[in-house]
Write a structure and sequence with these properties.
Distance between the termini: 60 Å
Helix content: 55-70%
Number of helices: 4
Structural class: mainly alpha
Number of domains: 1
Radius of gyration: 22 Å
Strand content: under 5%
Largest sheet: none
Number of strands: 0
Length: 58
């Protein structure tokens, strides 16, 4: 069944392109997340659950 389906698939470049796009996006998002310039943003975001609820509603 699998061989029959793959026999009619005439675009082998499509999964390779999808994989490359995924890897490039993943690498860019990982780099952007772990940059030192974003450290302050993530430290501030990590304190959000500990803040008073009244401040959120203001």
């Amino acid at each position: 069944m699998k061989q029959a389906a793959l026999r009619h698939f005439d675009m082998p470049w499509l999964p390779v392109t999808g994989l490359l796009l995924f890897v490039v996006c993943f690498a860019l998002y990982t780099y952007w997340t772990f940059r030192r310039s974003n450290r302050a943003h993530y430290q501030e975001a990590s304190r959000i659950p500990l803040e008073d609820e009244r401040r959120i509603s203001e």
